[in-house]
Amino acid sequence: MKLNRTEMADFLAVAPTTLDAWTRQGCPVESRPGQGKAAEFDSGAVTRWWIASQVEKATKRGDADAIDAHRSRKLSAEADLRELELAKLQGELIHLDDVERAFTQYSVAVRGAAMALPDRAALRLAGETDTGVIRKYLRDELTGALREGYDAYHAAMDLPAAEEVGA
């Protein structure tokens, strides 16, 4: 996964200055900063580099337990990365930008339908005195507004519409 300097530091739970020091020590950088462009890091490559550097430090100290712990963490991290990559390939992971775009579509659709409700209700319910009729009409209208949002969200996420799933 490609991350900028701040995101990579957050991912590793270190300060950005620590990441800078690691970069000077050989931490891999996908693209260097310059001319308005931020540095990019491959989270998998950086994680593998960090684990290898910790194993090397432990080896130099002759700390067999630390080496085993680092190897175990490395294997676990590699397995986690493979699982994430597989989930992405199988369509089980959704990019945050896609969710934000779909939620925006949902919000716009619900807002539009809800904002049109007073005008429709005024025309339809003028002179209506039966509260049961008024409640049913408003409930149906609000349900329709939510369904429009549901359909807009599902269309943006390329998922089936409400009618297709029986909602």
Number of strands: 2
Share in β-strands: under 5%
Shape: elongated
Largest sheet descriptor: 2 strands, antiparallel
CA distance, first residue to last residue? 35 Å
Number of helices: 7
Q: Give the helix/strand class.
A: mainly alpha
Order of helices and strands: EHHEHHHHH
Estimate percent helicity.
over 70%
Low-confidence stretches: none
Task: Describe this entry's structure for a reader.
The chain has 167 residues and is mainly α. Helix content is 73%, strand content 4%. The protein contains 7 helices and 2 strands. The chain has helices at 5-12, 16-24, 43-61, 64-89, 96-125, 131-156, 162-165; strands at 2-4, 40-42. A two-stranded antiparallel sheet has the order 1-2. α3 runs antiparallel to α4. The longest helix is centred in the middle third of the chain and has 30 residues, at 96-125. The chain is elongated.
For this entry, give a set of tags.
4% strand, 167 residues, mainly alpha, elongated, two-stranded antiparallel sheet
Please specify the SSE layout and strand pairing:
Blueprint: E1 2-4, H1 5-12, H2 16-24, E2 40-42, H3 43-61, H4 64-89, H5 96-125, H6 131-156, H7 162-165
Antiparallel strand pairs: 1-2
Helix pairs in contact: 3-4, 5-6
What is this structure, in a nutshell?
The chain is mainly alpha-helical. Helices cover 73% and strands 4% of the residues.
